[in-house]
């Protein structure tokens, strides 16, 4: 946590002005950079596009966040942080969920586009996936294990099977 920003409280699931991420079972096991994403309000309440016509509040679809990326509210150029998160959530409550094209990452991208975060209105799911991989911080050692252990087990088993044949 950096000075001047909201305090991260993973013990009570509060991540002010953060993008949060958690693994999706089986999918993240194969591709550990792909997971479920949400965006938190300025007081840390998490909103995530959890399924068709449903944006959850403080109940992420695949469990508590394992990673977060705290953004800087002073980089918001349009609207306000909370207003943009709310507007994106209202819009996504009207949408069908599509794993490949219109998903939780798209919901977060819309919020960032509405607030024109960092002077940009070109946020998208690919950019967010990459930036979360680079800037995301694990909430704990256990969160890191939860993310990477299944992948490492699969790689080890596949490697052993290949070597045995």
Plain-language structure description:
With 165 residues, the chain is an alpha+beta fold. Helix content is 38%, strand content 17%. It has a six-stranded antiparallel β-sheet. Strand 3 (46-51) and strand 4 (54-57) form a beta hairpin. Helix 2 (81-92) packs across helix 3 (104-114) and helix 3 (104-114) crosses helix 4. The longest helix is centred in the C-terminal third of the chain and has 24 residues, at 141-164.
List keywords for this structure.
single chain, 6 strands, about 160 residues, six-stranded antiparallel beta sheet, globular
Q: What's the short story on this structure?
A:
The chain has 165 residues and is α+β, with helices and mostly antiparallel strands. The chain has five helices and six strands.
The low-confidence parts are none
Number of strand segments:
6
Structural class: alpha+beta
- The run of helices and strands is EHEEEEHHHEH
Portion in strands: 15-25%
Major β-sheet strand ordering: 4-3-2-1-5-6
- The number of helical runs is 5
What is the gyration radius calculated from CA atoms?
16 Å
Shape: globular
Distance between the termini: 49 Å
Biggest pleated-sheet summary? 6 strands, antiparallel
> In which range does the helix fraction lie?
25-40%
| Mean pLDDT over the residues | 93
């Amino acid at each position: 946590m950096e000075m001047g920003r909201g305090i991260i409280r993973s013990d009570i699931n509060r991540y002010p002005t953060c993008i949060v991420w958690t693994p999706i079972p089986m999918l993240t096991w194969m591709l550990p950079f792909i997971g479920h994403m949400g965006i938190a309000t300025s007081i840390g309440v998490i909103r995530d596009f959890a399924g068709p016509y449903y944006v959850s509040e403080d109940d992420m679809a695949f469990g508590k966040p394992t990673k977060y990326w705290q953004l800087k509210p002073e980089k918001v150029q349009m609207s306000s942080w909370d207003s943009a998160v709310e507007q994106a959530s209202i819009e996504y409550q009207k949408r069908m969920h599509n794993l490949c094209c219109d998903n939780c990452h798209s919901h977060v991208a819309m919020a960032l586009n509405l607030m024109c975060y960092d002077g940009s209105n070109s946020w998208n799911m690919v950019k967010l996936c990459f930036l979360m991989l680079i800037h995301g911080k694990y909430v704990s050692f256990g969160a890191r294990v939860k993310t990477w252990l299944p992948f490492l087990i699969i790689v080890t088993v596949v490697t052993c099977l290949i070597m045995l044949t």
